[in-house]
Structures are given as C-alpha cells and as structure tokens.
Amino acid sequence: MPIFFKTDDEGGMMETLHVLLVDDEPRYLETTAKLLTRKGCHVATASSGLEALDYLAVKPVHVVVLDVKMPGMDGHETFGAIRQSHPLVEVILLTGHGTVDSAVEGLKSGAFDYLLKPVDIDLLWEKVSQAWGAYLAHAEKIRMAMLEKSLQSPREIMKKRG
Amino acid sequence: MVKRAHDEKIGRFILGNMTLVPLIPFVALLVVGGILFTGAMERSIVGRISQTARDHALMVDTFLKERRADLQLVAASSAFETLSTAQGLKEAFSYLRESSGAFADLGVFDASGMHVAYTGPFRLEGMHYGKEAWFQRTMDEGTWISDIFLGFRKTPHMVVAVRVDKDQAPWVLRATIDTDLFESLAGSVRIGETGEAFLVNSHGLYQSQRASRGRLMGRDPDSENYSGDAAGARVIRCVDGIKRVVAAAGLSEKPWQLVVVQDKREALGGLANIYLVITAVMLAGGAALLAVGYGVTSRIISRMRRTDDQAEHLEEQLFRAARLAELGEMAAGFAHEINNPLQVMQSELAYMKEVMGDVKGESEACLELEESMAQLKLQITRCSEITRSVLSFGRKESGRERSVKVTEFLDAVVRMVGPRAEVGGVRFEVKTPGENVSVQGDASRLQQVVLNLINNALDAVAARHGSRGGEVQVSAFKEGGALHLGVKDNGEGMDEERRAKIFSPFFTSKPPGAGTGLGLSVCHGIVESMGGHIDVESICGEGSCFTVVLPLDEPQNHKPHS
Fold first, then answer.
1. Minimal Cβ distance to B347: which of A28, A38, A97
2. Domain B397-556 maps to which CATH number in 3.40.50.720, 3.30.1160.10, 3.10.20.90, 3.30.565.10?
3. Would the CB atoms of B343 and A35 count as touching at under 8 Å?
4. Domain residue limits, chain B
5. pLDDT of B147-183, one tens digit each?
6. Does the global pTM surpass 0.95?
7. Quick check: B443 contacting A, CB < 8 Å?
8. In angstroms, rounded to a whole number, what is the distance separating the alpha carbons of residues B17 and B290?
9. What is the pLDDT of residues B395-432, one digit of tens each?
10. What is the DSSP string of B292-340?
C-alpha cells in the first residue's frame, strides 16, 4: 500500500511518461531509449529482470517494455514480480514468434499487450502511448474511488452512531 | 546383410533341430528293426534249408531200409532151389516189383560168388562175383547196400544184397535199384532257381545226379566242407567262387550225406530287398522330414523377417520423428536468435530515420540515403517474415481447432514451397478460392498435409522431367458445402496396384532411406480427423491428382444470413 500511495501521489502530479525498457541486448536498449526519448518521454533501461525490479523499487515508472526471453530471470518471472509489487504499472511484452503462446498467457494474467520482434518503433510508441493512457485512466479511477470513499465515510460514522 | 546372415544361422539351427531330432530315432528304429528282421529272416531261410536236408535224408534212409526189407522178405520166404530156376526167380522179381517199382533186376549167387540165376535187362548169369567188393561185404555183414558203382554191366548202379543162411550153404540174393528212380528220389528237391539236393558218399563222390553240374560218381569239389549232421546250414564259399548256403544231413543206412545247397544270392536275396525297402523308406522319410522342416523353417524365418522389418520401420519412424522434433526445435531456436539482431537493426534504422529527419535536406545525397534505408527496412522485414514462417512451422500446436482462411493459408504454404519449385524448374500454379472461404481445423496440421502433397508432387515431376517441364497445380474451390483442395502433377503417375496401397503405412515408391512411407498415411489420418477425406486419381505416365475434401467452416457459412 505504501507503494500505491507513492505512485498515486507522485504519478498523479507528473505530466511526463516514465518508461522502463528491459532487454538483454544493450545496443537495442540504447537506441530504443534514444528513440523513445525523442518522442518525448522519460526512458530508463535495465538489462535484466533483477535490475528492472531494483529500478522499480526506487523510481516511478508507468510503462514497462519487457523482453520475454532473457537469460537469468526471464520476462515472465519479472512480469510476475512487477504485478506483485507494482500492480498499476502497465507491462508490454516483447516476444519472438515462437513464444506467442507464453505471451498470450502473459496477456491473460494482466499484461497490457504483446509485440512480435522485430518491432517497428512507431508501433512500439503507439502501444506505449496506449498503455500510458490506460495507466492514467486506471489511476484516475482509483483516485475517484478514494475520493468517494472519503466523502462517504462521515455518513458511515453517523450511521454507526445512530 | 549382417541381419540376413544371422537369420540364416537361426534357420539352419531350426532346420537342424527339426530334421535331426526326429531323424535319429527314425533311422535308429529302421536300422535296428532291419537288422533284427533280416536276422530272423536269415535264420528262417537257413533253418528251412537244413530242415529240407534232414527231411530228405530221412526219406532216402527210409527208402533204402524198405528196399532191404523187401529183399529180406523175399529171401526168407523163398528157397534157394526155387530161386535158382529162371521161373522161380521171375516170380520172386515180379513180387518184388509189386512191392516197389524201384527194383531193376534180381539175381541169386551161391556162396562162392557164382551168379546162379538172374532176371533183368542184362545177361549176367554165370559170371563170378567172388572178388567183388559188394559180395564180400554181403558175405561178411549179412546185408549190404552198395555205393553207386559200374560193375560188370559198366553202367552206374547200386545194389541191395542179403545173405541167406537158412540152408547148409549160405547164398546171396541181390537186387539192383533202378538208378533213374533213385535219382529222382534223391534229387527231387528244388528250391528256387539254384536250390538243389544230392547225395555224396564219404569220399565225396556223387551218389545222385547233381542237377547243376557234376556227373554221377563224379567228385564234388566242395565235399570236404559238407560237415554232416544237423549242424544246420552254413554259408561257404565254393571252389567256383560262388557263396552258397549248404546244409548236409547224414544217412543212417550208408555213410552218405544228403546235401542241400542254394546260392546265397538267391537264398538271402529277399534280405537285400528288405535292405532296399528300408533304405528307400529311410530316404523318403528323410526327404519328407527335410521338406517339412524346410517349409516350416522358411515360414518361421519369413515371419521373423517381417517382424524384424516392422520393428526396423518403427524404429526408423521413431528416429525420424525424434529428428524432426529436434530439427523443429533447432529451427525455432535459430529463428528466435535471429530475431534479436533483427530487432536491434530495426531500432537502429528507426533511429537513423529520426536523425535524418533532424538534418532534413532536400539534397540528392539525402534522398539516396533515404531510399537505401527504405531498402534496408524492406530487407529486415523480409528476414523477419522468413523467421516467422520457420517459427510457425516448427511450433507444435496440437489439436488447436480454429477457422483457417484457405487463401491466406495457401499463400503461406506457397511461400514455403515456392523457392523449391523455382529451383527445380517446375511451373507452379496456385488457384485460391478467394476471400471468406475457410475450413475448421488445425492450421499447422493442415499445413503438414498440403506441404506433404506438394512435396510429393515436386518429387514426382523431378523424377520424370528433371529440371525442365514439370508442372504442379494447386487448386482450391468450393463445391457442395465442402472445400476441394487438389494437388496435381504431371509426373510418372502410378498403376492401380500402387494406387490401392498409396495410403497404407510403410508403402513408399521412393528409394530406401528417402521416404518412410508414412507421409501419406499420416496425411490421411489428419484429414480424416478433420472430418474430411483424401483421394487420388492417377493415370500411368500422365500424372496424379490428390484431392483433399474438407467440410467448410459452418459459422462462416451462416454469417452472411444472420
């Protein structure tokens, strides 16, 4: 819950999109980061699942672009861990064609979408933007719910007294 | 080849056991039985010959005894005076003749050996016999039966004589035995072709005619070997070199032997026949055993070979399946690995484009660069398309039933086999049914079927036309609520016999090692499992056409109406 409030507090105020790219190919990370930065968002990179989790623990992130096939902790494990610790963060899975089945599994357990490698940068940006929109909508919904709850609570207290 | 040699060894082992094991008691039985049987036969044959000798000797003995008794009776009942007259002697002779026709003449002698009276075919009266051996023996012993001798008449004959003592001076009555009659009596035995009987005296001289050889009174060359008295028959090698079975029986009246001989070859000839029969039975039985054994063995071996072949096929099939799976996995891994650098290239390209956008000049160099980059993008897309088809082929999506769009599906298949057809110089034509035609099924398995059919067709045209003139047509069309997917080639085609077997497992027309003979049977299974059927038409020398008929996807059919 503390994380939730943290993202809520900070994310709500922020206008810039924070993207975390996770891939074991350093050059890809670098170039894609440059490209996305040019589109106007803040981009961080991580070359492994563990690094990504470490980064998430300390910095705000809205959208994670996650390669499914990585050495060490693979995309699915990482995805599971992110779901656990940062439920609001939207995750886009990158997959080779051979692992489409597992990508579908990922979708079922709540990934925003999956993209087939090699992915066109424009398509990637489109998906990231959509995910950003979804994130904002989601966050908005939660804020509204919280607001309603806080508005209702005095009445509830009254009910209890009565 | 090693396997066949092994088969042969097993075959020999089975055949050996199957024939030798029954053959040993069979042969043993025949041999032992044969030996016992021939032994018994031999004893019986030899026994019969000795019996004949004994019986015959007894008969001759009895004959001689009777003749002497006849003579004694006449002597006893007549007086010397009576018999000395021609008339009296004639009467006595006719009396004797009545008793036995064996008497040839009759004579009376006084004590000095003077022939007093004679009746018979010769003229012997008045001759003096005092020095004759028979007369002296008769005077000494009372009665005498002579060997065959010549005497005064100079022809071989035998005599019976008795001394009569009832008057003052002894006198002698003598009768001659009819030589022919005695001959016929003594030599009357005939056994087979060579069996004969004859009499020899103690010096080995013939006392009766031996039918096969030797004159009366001649010397028998083998007489030393006729050991008398019931010793039974023996086989001896005679002087003329022929082996004979000989049985000799002594007489009691004279020191003679009655000999029965028969060539061994004839006497025991039956035994040779028995051996012949036994050998024939042995050979026939052995041959029958061998034939049966051989038949059974070859059946066992052929069954064994079939089982072996089947096992080998199965092994091969398993091996192939494993290899295919491995290959698929490898291809998938490979394609996946290619995707990563492609991804990098793609993003690099995108970045370059961005940077280019920044510089943004209308210069020719910039335009050319942009065109080159577009080309790069195109090539990357092409690569990624290739890896995608490889990945989708290698993927094992089992039993995933869904709607397959036929046109798209066929395009994908053609992308895979197109290059092969092009390289092989085959004119490859595809007729797709147009949009919105789909079937229900597993795309990857359907792909396997169509790929198999097309590859077979390509093989067939390559075999016939080489790298020029081959044609393969793939066509798909709707007909009667079903999709008809045909793969037609102008290859060699096949005859009715092969056509009938084409879908059975392990049937292949390709050289050994090139095909498992499973492809079409697997196709058949897949198509059947999708609720369709597969068929083939073929004309020898013109080509074949395989047709897969699949039910169309129902919801797709009904959608326009709803």
1. A28
2. 3.30.565.10
3. no
4. 397-556
5. 888 888 888 888 999 998 887 788 899 999 988 888 8
6. no
7. no
8. 11
9. 444 445 678 888 888 888 888 888 888 888 888 888 88
10. HHHHHHHHHHHHHHHHHHHHHHHHHHHHHHHHHHHHHHHHHHHHHHHHH
